[in-house]
Input
Amino acid sequence: MKKKVIVLIILVISLMIFGITNVEAYTKEDLREKMIKTYRINGSEFKASQAQIAELDRYLKVNGLSDKDALYISNKIDEAIALIEAGNAKEFKYLTASEKQKLIAMVADISNNTSVKAALTDGGVLTIYNNDGTIFTKLGDLIKYTDNSNYILLFTGLASLIGIIVFTKGFNKVNA
Amino acid sequence: MLKKIRGIVKSLAVSFFFSFLVIFVVFLGFKDQINTMVSLINKMVIIEAKTSKKDIKIDKVEKRLVNYPSWGEEWAKLKIKDINLDIPVFHGDTLDIIKYGAGHYSGSYFPGEGSSIILAAHNSPEHFYHLPELKDGSEIVIEAVYGTYKYKVYDTKIIKDTDEESLPIQTDKEILMMYTCYPVDSLGFKDKRFVVYAELVSESVGGEHDK
Output
C-alpha cells in the first residue's frame, strides 16, 4: 500500500511538472494566435487587420522568433492592453501623451530584450526591422497621400509673393 | 513706428492679394509645364533608387514568395499600354519611395500569391496622372523579378481617403488595386482617391524583367 501511495505521489508530481512546463511553453504560433484575435477594450472591438496579419506572417517567415522572445512579447502585449483599458482611448491618436510614451517605451523594451527590433513614434508609425538591421516595414495608414500639386502651389506661391513684394516696394518708392 | 508697421502690413496685404491672382493665372496657363518641371526634378533623383539584388523566387504550390525584396527596393516594372505607362515598382509606399515610381503597400501581397495587391503612386504625368483614363478591359502587366503577371481592369472607383474597406486585403482571389490622389489636375489638398481594380488573367513564372 505504501509503495502504491509513493508511486501515485510521484505520478502526480510528474504530471504537475509536465503540466507547468507545458503551460509555460510558448511558441511563435501561440503569439500569432494571440495577436490576431479580437479584443474588446473600452467598449470597442480591436482586431488585427488582414494587412497586419499578412505582415506578421511574412515577418515570422523571414526572421523567425524564439519561444523565449514570443513569451516576452506576449507579456508586453498584456501590459499594453492593461494600459489602454485603464484609459479611455479607442485609437492611438486619442491616447494621452503619457500613455503614448508608455507604449513607445514598451516597444523599445521589446527591442532591447528580444530579437525583434522596432520603434514606435508618437505619431503612431511603427517601424519594424529585419534581423539584419534593414527595414522590414513601416506600419502606418493603408491609404497614403499621393498628390504632387502642393509643390506647384508652393513654387508659384513663393515666386509670386517675392515678385509682388518687390513690385509693391518699387511702386511705393515711386509714389513717396 | 506705427506708420511703418501700417506700411508693411499694407504692402503684405496687397502682395497676398496679387499673389493669389498670379497663382490662379499661372495655374490656368502653365499648369502642364510646371508639372513637367516638377516631374523632371523628381526624375533627377531616380538614380538613387535601389534595384533588388536578391534572387527572389515564388513557391507556386504554396503561392507565397520564398524570399522578399527589402524595403525601398525595386522588384518589378508596371506597364500599361493604354496610358503609355512603364514605371518601376518598389516595396513600400512611403513618400520617400513613391517619388521614384509605384509603391507597393507592404500589408498587401505580391503577384502570384493569389491575394490582394495594392500599388500607390503620385498623380504626376510620369506616374498615375492618366490612371482615370483606364477603362474596363485595359491590360496591366507587372513584370516582377520572378515572373510576369497580366491583369485586366474590371472596375474603377472614386473613394474617400479614409475608405479602407474599398481596398480590401483578402486571400481568396488575386486582385490588383492601384490608386492615386483625385482629382489629378486640381490644386490643394485632396481627400479622394481614384482606384483601379484588375483581376489576374495570366502568369508566367521565371525570367527577369528588362531593367
In short: Residues 27-170 of chain A form one domain. The interface with chain B takes residues 49-52, 54-55, 58, 61-62, 130, 134-140, 142-153, 155-157, 160-161, 163-165, 167-169, 172 of chain A (CB under 8 Å).
